[in-house]
Amino acid sequence: MRHEEGCHNDGMRWIFGLLKLLVLAAVVVGVGLWAATAFFGLQVEFAGTGMTPVFSFHDPDAHIEALEAERAAQQEQSPPPVAPEAEPPAEEMVESLATAEEAPPEEAPPATIHAPWPNYRGNVQRDGVYRQTGIRTDWPADGLEELWRTKVGGGYASMVVAQGLVYTIEQRRDREVVAAYEFETGRQAWEHSWEALFQETMGGDGPRATPTWDDGKLFALGASGELRALDGETGGQVWRTNILEDAGAENQQWGVSGAPLIVDGMVIVLPGGDAGKAVAAYDAEDGSIVWQAESGKGGYASAQLETIAGQRQIVVFAATRVFAVRVKDGSLLWSHAWPSSYEINVSQPMRVDEDHLLISTEYGVGSALLQIQRDGDSFSARELWKKNTLKNKFNSSVMHEGQVYGFDGSILASIDPMTGNRNWKGGRYGFGQLLLADGHLLVLSESGEVVLVRATPEAHEELARFQALEGKTWNVPAIADGVLLVRNQTEMAAYRLQ
Question: What is the pTM assigned to this prediction?
Answer without folding.
Answer: 0.86
